[in-house]
Amino acid sequence: xxxxxxxxxxxxxxxxxxxxxxxxxxxxxxxxxxxxxxxxxxxxxxxxxxxxxxxxxxxxxxxxxxxxxxxxxxxxxxxxxxxxxxxxxxxxxxxxxxxxxxxxxxxxxxxxxxxxxxxxxxxxxxxxxxxxxxxxxxxxxxxxxxxxxxxxxxxxxxxxxxxxxxxxxxxxxxxxxxxxxxxxxxxxxxxxxxxxxxxxxxxxxxxxxxxxxxxxxxxxxxxxxxxxxxxxxxxxxxxxxxxxxxxxxxxxxxxxxxxxxxxxxxxxxxxxxxxxxxxxxxxxxxxxxxxxxxxxxxxxxxxxxxxxxxxxxxxxxxxxxxxxxxxxxxxxxxxxxxxxxxxxxxxxxxxxxxxxxxxxxxxxxxxxxxxxxxxxxxxxxxxxxxxxxxxxxxxxxxxxxxxxxxxxxxxxxxxxxxxxxxxxxxxxxxxxxxxxxxxxxxxxxxxxxxxxxxxxxxxxxxxxxxxxxxxxxxxxxxxxxxxxxxxxxxxxxxxxxxxxxxxxxxxxxxxxxxxxxxxxxxxxxxxxxxxxxxxxxxxxxxxxxxxxxxxxxxxxxxxxxxxxxxxxxxxxxxxxxxxxxxxxxxxxxxxxxxxxxxxxxxxxxxxxxxxxxxxxxxxxxxxxxx
Length: 626
Prior knowledge:
By secondary structure, the protein is an all-beta fold. The model is unreliable at 1-36 and 328-336 (pLDDT under 50).
């Protein structure tokens, strides 16, 4: 039997506790709520000549796909056609037009239309009024990703309410998808009545059912053409906005909100702004925020200035938020205020597009609600030729498309702001040597924009001079395509694979390759993330210890003392020294030669074994028995 003693280099497992300062956690968290100013300098585009009717209501709807492409639906009153227009590059649009239905409404307020994307299935659903003032729908049964819904044959069409049968012309005001219950909701009315219908359907081709018939209170306007909207929140919350009696052109009107917290079993009413100066129609919209509170925004003229008020309902009481004055003039036409557009963003914050006003030109403005306050007012378009009918969408990529039409010329325009890019983050790396050749590094990389990220990966022994590190295996806690490594770099980190847009990484640094025959406690790792656009903040680990140096001198040779049929006594040789000593190991096998470290090991902890091997001086013994 041949014997061989190898001193396995021990690893000094310093207990390095990766302390993540609370302040860093706060900084990391605020990336999800901070609202930054958007760039509205590009993306302004004339979409189409649509005629000049329907200026109080929404004239269309936007969808934005995962790649940032934009599609908008609208009615063209010049040729009575319902269109969709598409551009893959909204920052510098080149529009492609698809005539979905050539029998659109011929005139009047019924030219309104809406379109939304199903949040889970991705198909497009559109509602509009046809030439007979009947309420129709069209849907593209595909996951909108810019490769479909661009041909008339992609759209399936049908009728919701036939005006020729019912004897009433139809108006439509608002449409949303209720992702809590799983149904579409549509707010509509019939001409010359004061009745609002909130109808629902689970699929575009299904049968619509009436969720509620919103008969207005005694002071509610009987004009069915003007501003109304609705919102659906969690826990059976529903709210509908309308407005009070108007005495045109010198009278006044005020917003009325009808709301329920039990799915419509009972309803409450709230009236706002009854002390307003003369305005024909108050621009009003409402939406539930991420906390489940109802936010109402409406306009009213005060001292020849257009004021936008906002209120909040927390489920038990109403509270005033603020008033914001815009430019001089009490609204276009001196009595009518244009409708705002208030929607929920993918991150849960609310997004508001609204108007300033002047004697001849008004402007397009923008703000966001984060659950506790409004962001600073941004100017989207400073001079707009008597614009109305704003509608907008915020894509999953964070891009914002705002549509509005001009009453004077009848043009439909879009203003687009690209996503605000937030720098990715990396947590302070934690590092510890886990074998003679490997240091294990753990960290988390996040990017709220869901970009594929990368990171540098470097080491230093003095905190000043940094070198690209040799990387072994990298594992991530989320399902993804895997990462790509090269010396000093990790790429292909998919932050979209997790609900909070973060990826936990475990990285093997091949320390014996980069720092052979080295013993030190001053090593650091640093990482700088990048999302393809901008670098994030560099984070550096605490100093930690490594040991890749071999023991010196090597242990002396073993000699045979005594053998028997089932054991051998070996004389121990000279000892070794090492600052991070762990144990000696004796490897053996039957045969005459070729023993290696892959053969059977006899150690201080094996069974059988000898605890004297755990001491660098063999506990002053001279032999061991195997």
